[in-house]
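quick one: S-adenosylmethionine bound model?
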Amino acid sequence: MTDPEKSAARLRRQLADRLSEAGHLKSPQWQAAVEAVPRHKFLSGGFFRSVPGSSPTAYAPVLPDEYSEGWLSLCYADESLVTQIAGTVVPRDITGTIARQPSSSSTLPSLMVDMLEALDVEDGNAVLEIGTGTGYNAGLLAHRIGVENITTVETDPDVAASARHALWGCGYQVDVVVADGRKGYADSAPYDRVIATCGVTRVRQEWVNQTRPGGIILTTLRGGLWSSGLAKLTRTGDGTAEGAFISEASFMRARQEKPESNLDIPGPDDGERRRTHLGGDIAHDWTARFIIDNTMDGLSLIGGVSLAGEPPSDYFLHPESGSFAAVSGSGDEGYTVRQGGPLRMWDTAERAIGEWREQGSPGVTAFRIRVTPEAQTVYLESAPGVAWVKPAGTASSL
Ligand SMILES: C[S@@+](CC[C@H](N)C(=O)[O-])C[C@H]1O[C@@H](n2cnc3c(N)ncnc32)[C@H](O)[C@@H]1O
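yep, here:
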């Protein structure tokens, strides 16, 4: 019988080779980490796989069989493996399937490696990771810079306990802290590098303050319309941070920033109606969603709602202020918007999308971000005047 540890080591080397050939792994240090850290040990509670063709996506549990080559191969595939659903359910809890949102996972190895390479870690750097999940990424970091230099923060105590167990079992006595990582972790600050593996709506001032001048913050920013961009910021000496969006990567969002689930649809007579050149189908475009999300926090979208006597409309909702924009029509016949509440959301969206189109509709990586104690500003590198500013602390979800 084949020795499972030998099989796992071979599969790790194969994963590292594939990631290297595809251009994700660039440096020998991260190559060595992928070859050394046993991802399967971080998946010993099993994982969920999506059921092909299910809508909404359903997940079925896959329980561990560390001695089977099939199980090990899945652990070393370049796949994101969901390990918890709906904030509590783990693979051993169910038979059959479950169609709820994933709440913890072991991230896609190629994305993890892209981020680790982009973090530009140097020997001796102190690193804060936000979103421990299985602990696999913290294991890679511990291998690269030493256990004493990495602190990882997880909001879910059960997830944190499993990650600690796996990390320590592999010989990586990493400090796994249970906390809301959106506030960073002041006790071990300052850090040279901060990396978030859950999506957030804002780069919080705490992260900036806890990073040394010249240090790097790497995080995905995601909004209510499910846009996302991976931002790489450098902390400047005056307590601000600034940088570029380097990819469209996306992560499950921070649990505290879950979208409002009880959304009220306004009645058919609410709001004021007018013609608009911008249809609700603009939300099919990733960058357009990214731009609208960067004009305000806390948006939700419900597509194709038909109220009595009304044509189907896409409802853009801002529950916190009670504002809405319901957009109907088509490119052929033209669009109509009905807006209500204190924010004229469609006026803002039209203006922002118009400015972006005037610049040739560039993608997410054409944008930059600046964070100061006063505001978070996302702007176009080629036209710094095309900017969307969110003042600090303007959303109750923060
Ligand atoms: C995609 S997983 C992280 C993957 C992980 N880095 C790995 O290597 O397996 C995202 C994790 O972020 C955690 N999370 C969500 N909100 C958080 C918060 N506010 N602070 C810290 N962790 C959070 C989730 O519970 C989840 O475990």
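The mean pLDDT is 94.
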